[in-house]
TrEMBL record:
Domain Rieske: 1-83
Species per Swiss-Prot/TrEMBL record: Dendroctonus ponderosae
SUPFAM superfamilies: FAD/NAD(P)-binding domain (SSF51905), FAD/NAD-linked reductases, dimerisation (C-terminal) domain (SSF55424), ISP domain (SSF50022)
Organism taxonomic ancestry: Eukaryota, Metazoa, Ecdysozoa, Arthropoda, Hexapoda
Protein name: Rieske domain-containing protein
Cofactor(s) recorded in Swiss-Prot or TrEMBL: FAD
Pfam name, any one: Rieske
Keyword annotations: 2Fe-2S, FAD, Flavoprotein, Iron, Iron-sulfur, Metal-binding, Oxidoreductase
Family according to the record: Belongs to the FAD-dependent oxidoreductase family.
Molecular function GO terms recorded: 2 iron, 2 sulfur cluster binding; metal ion binding; oxidoreductase activity, acting on NAD(P)H
């Protein structure tokens, strides 16, 4: 892979198996230079967040993001490679795949419940795959689908800039969007969805991607003002104006949401204290050593961490003023952020005929289909097969995977019968350090490469002899290379790591 200048813009040129392709040079998600990404079999995976693009067409095949890359014309003349491109595509570096027009009258109606990344991807994919019927997207929030990861990472973001598309885009493509409306019930016998505004929608096929509901502590005072979760734009829009140099922040829970919130608040407030259930953050996910290195990073930035503790009581009159911990400590607190997990937004499906797991998730097959043949589910709520995890079923709350589910559900609602081949990919940014994670599964051993304490490392999580997942910091694009390896059904084993844990990445 190499980049070349063309009309003062950059083009990515790739030679693989004797074929030369030319594409847009930057990932359409956040603009990562793809020349530094991972080259897989016929596609490129972004080194930052794992989005994948097909070499032959530039089409996006895995996520995050919605747009595909422009694909340019390549000719060979006298051993010279010539690339021809439209100036508009060179400057934009992205394109929207062509969409079918809605037919009138529409013969079939598909309803999508959930205005998150999964629902947004589903409705676009339906049109891109030729569906000409009626599409209705039901959004509980008063906004079009937007970049939800910013809620905890960047509380001061503007919703207008974070929305994936405009109202005009959905109108032009015949996609009806209902904002500020929630689904309250589904009747799978009558094929209807009841809405919070009293209306009822008929459907031929239904996709449910309603996501998670963050928890608040089950303690006295949890309903006081300024006890906040960080799930939606309104959460961050409420919290950000409250941050000032006199404010003392407490974060309950050392989850990714909790630690991202603490990261954002540092230098904007008087103090930030994280109350964690474990000795270090992320211990259950990444182990003690990585958690300790991340904790050292936070403490170097002035964050106080109180380990092996929890909240017994939230004090205040109207608004929170302090919190009492399980060990009796009392912390002054003006805003309490909660990062202690979540439940599934699926209660409205009780009695619908769609079977719910005991935890509220929805089991699907490899086509994202529930026990009701014309009802599909995806995103956080889907208890679905994971290709890289021997197709075992699990519910995973990853942003890119939610979009992947949305695309898969759409093509399968249209009868394409394409089984999902999911490779979970996750990322977080903490004080300028990018952490990537790919794969999934419980582990019983960790092998490290690089300097964990210096936050320039790669860690391999093994179950017996198989590497089930990896994480890295400061070593891009290794996690993306591993993800591509899993996508190609090539496992990594303990024996591959013995002499040089990174040898596999150099040979790939």
């Amino acid at each position: 892979m190499k980049t070349f200048e063309l009309d003062e813009e950059k083009v990515l040129v790739v030679k693989q198996n004797g074929v030369i392709s030319a594409l847009g040079s930057k990932c359409t998600h956040y603009g990562a230079p793809l020349v530094n990404g991972a080259l897989g079999d016929g596609r490129i995976r972004c080194q930052w967040h794992g989005a994948c693009f097909k070499l032959a067409t530039g089409d996006i095949e895995d996520f995050p993001g919605l747009d595909s890359l422009p694909c340019y014309k390549v000719t060979i003349e006298n051993d010279s490679v010539k690339v021809r491109a439209r100036k508009s595509e060179l400057s934009s570096n992205k394109r929207v795949k062509p969409m079918a027009k809605r037919a009138a009258p529409a013969s079939e109606k598909i309803v999508v419940i959930g205005g998150g990344p999964s629902g947004a991807t589903a409705v676009e994919t339906l049109r891109q795959e030729g569906f000409t019927g009626q599409i209705v997207l039901v959004c509980k929030e008063n906004y079009l689908p937007y970049d939800r990861v910013k809620v905890s990472k960047q509380m001061d973001f503007e919703i207008g800039k974070a929305q994936f598309r405009t109202d005009q885009f959905y109108q032009d493509n015949g996609i009806e969007v209902l904002k500020g409306v929630a689904a309250t019930a589904v009747d799978t016998a009558a094929n209807t969805v009841s809405l919070s505004n009293g209306a009822e929608l008929q459907y031929d096929k239904l996709y449910v991607a309603t996501g998670c509901k963050p928890r608040k502590p089950n303690v006295p005072g949890a309903d006081l003002k300024n006890v906040r979760v960080l799930k939606d734009y309104d959460d961050s829009a409420y919290a950000f104006p409250l941050l000032n140099p006199d404010v003392e922040i407490v974060v309950i829970g050392s989850s990714f949401i909790g630690m991202e919130a603490a990261n954002f608040c540092v230098d904007k407030v008087k103090s930030v204290t994280v109350v964690g259930r474990g000795a270090v953050p992320f211990r259950s996910t990444w182990g003690e050593r990585i958690g300790a290195a991340i904790l050292a990073l936070f403490e170097s930035k002035g964050v106080k961490y109180i380990a092996n503790n929890g909240i017994k009581k939230i004090n205040g009159s109207g608004a929170v003023s302090s919190v009492e911990l399980n060990d009796g400590q009392i912390l002054k607190c003006d805003i309490l952020f909660c990062g202690i997990g979540s439940s599934y937004f699926t209660d409205f499906l009780k009695g619908s005929g769609v079977e719910l797991q005991p935890d509220g998730s929805i089991e699907t097959n490899e086509f994202m289909q529930t026990n009701v043949p014309n009802v599909y589910a995806g995103g956080d709520i889907a208890y679905a097969p994971v290709w890289s995890y021997h197709n075992r079923k699990v519910a995973i709350g990853h942003y890119g995977l939610a979009q992947y589910h949305g695309r898969a559900a759409a093509v399968n609602m249209l009868g394409k019968n394409e089984p999902i081949k999911a490779v979970p990919y996750f990322w977080t940014m903490l004080f300028g350090k990018g952490f990537r994670y790919a794969g999934h599964g419980s582990y019983d051993d960790i092998i490290y490469a690089g300097d964990v304490e210096g936050l320039k490392f790669m860690a391999f999580f093994l179950k017996e002899h198989e590497v089930v997942s990896v994480t890295s910091c400061g070593m891009d694009p290794l996690v993306s290379k591993f993800a591509e390896r899993l996508a190609e059904d090539r496992k990594l084993y303990r024996s591959d790591l013995q002499e040089d844990p990174l040898a596999w990445s150099k040979a790939a």
